Amino acid sequence: MNATRTPLRAAPAAGRLHLLVFRPPAEEVARVCPLMQALDEMEAARAASYVSARDRTQYVAAHATLRGLLAEYTGLEPGRIVLGRSEEPYGKPQLIDPPVPLHFNLSHSHGLIAIGVAAAPVGVDVQRVPSPEAVEMVLPRLHPQEREELRELPAAERTVAFARLWTRKEAYLKGLGTGLTRSPAADYLGDRNARGRPHGWTVRNVPVQPGYAAAAALRNHPT
Fold it and tell me: Which residues form the 4'-phosphopantetheinyl transferase N-terminal domain (predicted)?
């Protein structure tokens, strides 16, 4: 089998994001993920470390699908794609020596998976809506204006609003390359002041099934 082939997709145009949000079928990993053998040694070891079959399926489905998508863009065989980490504090995942400019990010939580691929830095995040108690614990860590906006909402609406806000925040911080090594209070990602959001980034929620929230962040000017 050749290591390279003709790419099936052109690289995403500037300002465009290829986003997948999906739930893997509840079947055996080997049946769900024909690309499982394409996982590298570290991914295979991580998959094997999961005690829960559901969690293992989720992890393998996420990483196998990512490799399949990157293969379509690069023309490389999924198993020949070399992934690494950037030198940024968060150690953002990246392609090593990509044949085309390509950035990606993935997230998975409680059976739901999000993958984003773009020509510019990108971050994605998916979360299950937390309990009211969990929201109260995290509120002090947020930007002051975000805290104010959430406090003004009826209690029945606060958990969903928080989940939408938190996924925007995580997607942006992942795209930035810092993750939560950067304080969640440092940047405003609330709903009421669009101009107060980080300059040079588009950060939006994406539709998902009830009980979850998801968001994507895309840098909209060259690095």
Answer: 35-114
